[in-house]
Write a structure and sequence with these properties.
The complex is a heterodimer of chains A (281) and B (346). Chain A is built from 13 helices and two strands. Chain A is mainly α and 281 residues long. Chain A has one domain: Orthogonal Bundle (MetI-like fold). In chain B, the strands form four sheets. A six-stranded mixed sheet of chain B has the order 6-7-8-3-9-10, with helices on both faces. In chain B, β11 and β12 form a beta hairpin. Classes of the chains: A mainly alpha (281), B alpha+beta (346). The interface between A and B is medium-sized, with 25 and 27 residues.
């Protein structure tokens, strides 16, 4: 056998797997989104956009991403900086910080539901402290803001660690000499972070942000657990159209929209945080 | 004015003692080289002066000011790192300007200093480039320029030439010496390369296992090693050592030769001589030739003397063959004696 063919041969199974289980379904979904009753049409997208819940779902999702991701980024940077500086117990700290990663998003939603529920921990605490006479309805249909805040909290709690893990790995790749040189040449700790760590961390920041933004636009189970249908989001609407309204074509249109947003934002961050070849470590 | 005083500085890492109570004073504008094998503590000592490492005990003074509790940026120092540490995300210009910007100097002054030092290091045509577009030698120049641009009282250099190839190292060595002498800074320079140390230093501090064994001028260190280690570490080939037996007070027998030596109550001490300080003749140490290596200007002859190896550098026109019995006469004023127990010079 020719040595040249071997790498491609070895890549074959994975490529086939991706084609069968990703590209093919993707083509099917795309086809469904653009057809109805066998003919090409944009009606599915019109139905999607014309529904009263669509703008609400779109803005809720966007707002969630716009609030959650920056907070997570700052928190993850802070956590990563602390973890990177630890000389002992670094592994333990990393594991503890990463515990929420091991929990599915639905389970995370349920944990926070157990906190905010009418008979939940928070209400028990408040009434035991004598601060409330009867349980507060935090997650009722009238308190959209509290639902939103609960979702933000749950998302931050659940998915900040994944960013931190990526950033810790990235920080480990920056040679210590750069920090020492900056220190000798007069940079305060804050200046070192801004002038050395952040710019040299760009490749990892890029990965972390792209990953988190994509996940943020796919937010579903946490919202479903905490808000039900009181806080419509794009993924929830996709689910709704597919299973409650039994219209797979509109559901497919939603899925394509989410994909388009993900691809668009990915391209944006790839460009915005690009490191020129000559400026790499 | 920046005299550096290191007072009883020690450094322990857990149970390991990297530095044992070091005392060293470096005069204003002096070029001090810390020389030693890897693991001798020379880099640790430099990093303590820089403030990148905290001493377990002792004091560091720079220019009459105690600095061991100050962060590096408040010590009036600049440093050249072994791997240069030229920031990859900044242009050469911004690298050199880094420290000046941290000091918040006006733009005009930043430009003046960057251009002046770039010119001095012959890198003015590279100012717009990134580190990834530079060769090792060019990066080295940027690192030195960045240090010089600070116009510091003290420049610290950690093996700055060790990553360059041999030819470039030779070139940079001569250039560094000129540039640093002109800049009138006090310099501490760490290296394991004795040739580098000899050629650059005003004074060499030879370090061994966390101690400074000798701190003196290059010629003094070479001619009058304070300890056996210094004689065997410096010089290539190193100093020869032969056991000497007492015959009378102040008289010693070495390989069949009786020589006047130090008065000592010991019965055996070590005789030492540099390879180039012997002449082949009719009198001298009894030696049997083992290996002959003609090196051009002279010939390196490895012999057996008293059952040990002895290297002699002889004139290249000497007609010698392997197996020959020679008499090697040591130059009287170059003979040194060492105590075999303390290994110190007598």
């Amino acid at each position: 056998m020719h040595g040249k063919a071997l790498p491609y041969l070895l890549l074959m199974p994975a490529t086939l797997f991706l084609c069968v289980f990703f590209l093919y379904p993707f083509a099917l979904v795309a086809f469904e989104a653009f057809t109805r009753d066998g003919g090409f049409t944009l009606d599915n997208f019109r139905t999607m956009a014309g529904n009263w819940k669509f703008p609400v779902a779109f803005w809720n999702t966007t707002l969630l991403a716009a609030i959650v991701v920056p907070i997570q980024l700052v928190t993850a940077l802070l956590m990563a900086t602390v973890v990177s500086r630890l000389e002992t117990g670094r592994g333990a700290a990393l594991y503890i910080f990463a515990i929420p990663l091991g929990i599915s998003d639905l389970a995370a939603g349920l944990i926070w539901l157990a906190i905010f529920d009418q008979s939940g921990f928070l209400n028990t605490l408040l009434s035991n402290l004598g601060l409330v006479d009867r349980p507060v309805m935090f997650l009722g249909y009238q308190s959209k803001l509290t639902i939103f805040i609960a979702v933000v909290l749950a998302e931050i709690w659940r998915a900040t660690a994944i960013m931190m893990v990526i950033l810790v790995a990235g920080m480990g790749l920056i040679p210590r000499e750069y920090h020492e040189a900056a220190e000798v040449f007069g940079a305060s700790p804050w200046k070192r972070f801004v002038k050395i760590t952040l710019p040299l961390l760009r490749p990892s920041l890029q990965t972390a942000i792209i990953l988190r933004v994509i996940l943020a636009f796919e937010v579903f189970a946490v919202v479903a657990a905490l808000g039900g249908t009181n806080l419509p989001v794009l993924m929830g609407e996709t689910y709704n159209w597919q299973f409650s309204l039994q219209d797979r074509n509109v559901a497919a249109a939603f899925a394509l929209l989410i994909l388009a947003i993900s691809v668009g934002l990915t391209l944006f961050f790839l460009r915005a945080l690009r490191v020129p070849k000559e400026a790499r470590i | 004015m920046a005299e550096i005083a290191i007072k009883q500085v020690a450094k322990r890492f857990g149970g390991f003692t990297a530095l044992h109570s070091i005392d060293l004073t470096i005069a204003d504008q002096e070029f001090m080289v810390l020389l030693g094998a890897s693991g001798c503590g020379k880099t640790t000592l430099l990093r303590i002066v820089a403030g990148l490492e905290t001493p377990s005990q002792g004091e560091v003074w720079i220019g009459g000011r105690r600095v061991d509790h100050l962060p590096p940026r408040d010590r009036g120092i600049a440093m050249v790192f072994q791997n240069y540490a030229v920031f990859p995300h900044l242009t050469v210009f911004e690298n050199i300007a880094f420290g000046l910007r941290m000091k918040k100097l006006p733009q005009q002054e930043v430009e003046r200093r960057v251009n002046r030092t770039a010119e001095l290091m012959h890198i003015e045509q590279l100012l717009k480039r990134y580190s990834g577009q530079l060769s090792g030698g060019q990066r080295q120049r940027v690192a030195v320029a960045r240090a010089l641009a600070m116009e510091p009282d003290v420049i610290l250099m950690d093996e700055p030439l060790s990553n360059l190839d041999a030819l470039l190292r030779l070139e940079m060595r001569a250039e560094l010496k000129g540039v640093l002498a002109a800049s009138k800074t006090t310099t501490i320079y760490v290296t394991h390369d004795q040739v580098e140390a000899m050629s650059l230093a005003d004074r060499i501090a030879v370090m061994h296992q966390g101690h400074i064994v000798q701190a003196a001028s290059p010629v003094e260190v070479y001619r009058n090693p304070a300890a056996r280690f210094v004689g065997s570490f410096i010089g290539n080939p190193p100093m020869n050592f032969i056991p000497a037996t007492k015959t009378a007070n102040g008289s010693w027998t070495v390989a069949g030769l009786t020589l006047p030596g130090p008065k000592s109550d010991k019965h055996k001490i070590d005789f030492a001589i540099r390879p180039e300080d012997v002449d082949a003749g009719n009198e001298g140490l009894h030696a049997t030739v083992r290996v002959i290596e003609p090196l051009g200007p002279h010939t390196l002859v490895t012999c057996d003397v008293e059952g040990g190896l002895f290297r002699a550098i002889l004139e290249s026109n000497a007609t010698i063959a392997v197996g020959d019995r020679l008499r090697l006469a040591p130059k009287a004023d170059r003979i040194r004696w060492f105590d075999p127990e303390t290994t110190n010079a007598l």
